[in-house]
Specification:
By secondary structure, the chain is mainly α. The protein contains five helices and no strands. Helices cover 49% and strands 0% of the residues.
Length: 153
């Protein structure tokens, strides 16, 4: 399973982030590239316990744990327009600086990857519920990869 605790995969993800530019065109969704970078940083902060979104409401809070084994059972990428917690979309497009957001995401990935399991949140994921550190690392890889594919890198 691909995960962001793997230094080689973390480096690959960071190289892909560096191939983005402020004019990178999205292939789906509606966030700008800078908003997407901020959203990915927020996701990483959730995995590290800096942001603790509330649990999804019914029926998502029941469906999430049921499909968790499918999501964490293989390296299949996340599907387009997958739902996400509202708290991870706080970036105002007029306040997003591409270079700043890119640097912040890379720094956050470095912190997550180097600290490993010790940095992972015990707060339940809004959709999947309780996650083990390795599951957080898998999900963070899949999440950032998903958004990089959204912008063609």
């Amino acid at each position: 399973m691909k995960d962001l605790f793997d230094p080689t995969l973390a480096d690959d993800i960071k190289q892909r982030i560096m191939r983005l530019n402020a004019e990178s065109e999205r292939q789906w969704g509606n966030m700008t590239v800078a908003q997407t970078l901020a959203h990915c940083t927020s996701g990483m902060q959730m995995a590290m316990g800096v942001i603790n979104p509330k649990r999804a409401s019914f029926p998502a809070n029941v469906i999430g744990p049921l499909i968790k084994p499918l999501v964490f059972g293989d390296d299949k990428p996340m599907r387009r327009n997958s739902p996400s917690s509202r708290e991870l979309f706080s970036a105002d497009p007029t306040q997003c600086d591409f270079e700043g957001e890119r640097a912040r995401l890379i720094t956050t990935i470095d912190s997550f990857a180097s600290k490993g399991a010790a940095c992972c949140s015990y707060h339940p994921h809004p959709f999947f519920g309780t996650l083990k550190p390795h599951q957080w690392a898998i999900l963070m890889y899949k999440h950032v990869d998903h958004h990089l594919r959204q912008f063609g890198v």
